[in-house]
Amino acid sequence: MVGVNDPTPYGYGRATEMGCRVRYSTSFKENPVETFVRLALRVLTGFDVVHALRQRRAILESDVVWTHTESQFLAVAAILPRTGGPKVIAQTVWLFDRWNGLNPLHKWLYARLIRRLDVLTFHSSHNMAVAEAAFPAMDCRLVPFGIPSERMTPPAPRRNGRLEIVAPGSDRHRDWATLVKAVTGLKDAFATILSGTAPKRLAKGHGAIEIKQARSNEELTGYFSKADVLCVPLKPNKHASGITVIQEAVLAGVPVVASRTGGLDEYFAPGEVRFVEPGDATALRDALSEVARDPEAATAMARRAQERMRRDAMGAQTYIRRHVALSRELLARD
């Protein structure tokens, strides 16, 4: 994946330094028929039960299973024995954003599977609140997300000519239309949208906007190094959409303008990231203009954001340490 990454997926391998033995799920070679059946079941149910079945032996030999999204924990829950079996930390990302809109059959199935799990974890209290209302008897925990944060680039004023805006991300809740409206009214500004999902038509007729993808970490670093500001425009959501990109920008010393939604302001305060209301193109344009007018103030904001990450030990190490501590707590209950 392009971005600030750990040598192991999402940094989970760091648990080996904390007294754990970590095993990862593995892929299996498939013929076309097997692939079709597996993907058809995934479309039908919303999770990959075939993949989980192939990991069943490793799952049952584990003390604790860590899942990264609901598509994983639902599959694991589906193959768990009725008694015994490992503890499961079920991390959810998108499920409770759309919980109330699920069709009745999926909602019934997911509810049955969720009740077989030991703990639900969340990156945002907004998401957790929906889950607590739906499953008052479930153990729900807030586990803030973090990326490797050992290396930081000191912020420095970067304003030199036109305002360079970089907006990375392919999350389903990116609001590219609002960003295009905001940039259209800005003078001496240029926005580079780095996304594999942003519609290319949004940039047509806009000479100050381009849509492309960063194909490597070196390329992404190059965009960060020339950026005056990183922009994260978002539609309303409950799962802290954009937090990975925001942390990457903060580590790179780039000031951030982002939509106030999904609990992002639980990670960074308004004086550390410039927040605007979702869907408000005028407010977004004004925030970007502030960066253009006062690069020194924007640099000070970026510096405060880095201080916040240091003070809160925000990063992969803390994220994994919380998983380890929660695992030991679950095992101690027996």
Explain this structure.
It is a single chain. The chain folds into two domains: 9-146 and 316-332, Glycogen Phosphorylase B (Rossmann fold, 3-Layer(aba) Sandwich), CATH 3.40.50; 163-311, Rossmann fold, CATH 3.40.50. It contains twelve helices and ten strands. The chain has helices at 32-45, 49-54, 56-60, 70-79, 104-114, 125-134, 176-184, 217-226, 243-251, 281-293, 295-311, 316-332, and strands at residues 64-67, 87-91, 119-122, 140-142, 163-168, 189-194, 209-212, 229-232, 256-259, 274-276. A six-stranded parallel β-sheet has the order 7-6-5-8-9-10, with helices on both faces. Strand 1 (64-67), helix 4 (70-79) and strand 2 (87-91) form a beta-alpha-beta unit. It is globular. The model has no long low-confidence stretch (mean pLDDT 95).
SSE arrangement:
Layout: H1 32-45, H2 49-54, H3 56-60, E1 64-67, H4 70-79, E2 87-91, H5 104-114, E3 119-122, H6 125-134, E4 140-142, E5 163-168, H7 176-184, E6 189-194, E7 209-212, H8 217-226, E8 229-232, H9 243-251, E9 256-259, E10 274-276, H10 281-293, H11 295-311, H12 316-332
Parallel strand pairs: 1-2, 2-3, 3-4, 5-6, 5-8, 6-7, 8-9, 9-10
Helix pairs in contact: 7-10, 10-11
